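Table S2 (continued). Query chain:
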Amino acid sequence: VIVWLDSEHAKIFKLAPEKKQMEMVKHHTHEHHTSADAERQKHMDKYFKDVAHHVESIANELLIIGPGQAKSQFKHYLASHSANLAKQVVGVEASDHPTDAEILAKARSFFKEYDRFH
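Corresponding output:
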């Protein structure tokens, strides 16, 4: 499974030889420049919980990619809120805003290389 996410939405792809499955999870922010850090974190935790819920039943290997800090924050969220899913994370990589085809190509390349060493 590959998850591309930023602070606003996530694209979740399950790679399978015969087809691809894709889901989208959107984070509806009510963020204002004056919002408190605790309130922003509460919204991010709900977003990450939603993404984790979509991923947990389909992932046995999880690649997280995306721009900015959301990918690392999601990995840290999993470590503290979903230990089983956190164990499935095999990589975290930077990626701007690729097309779905580019995300899938990156995932296939990553997992091909990952499989060679594991």
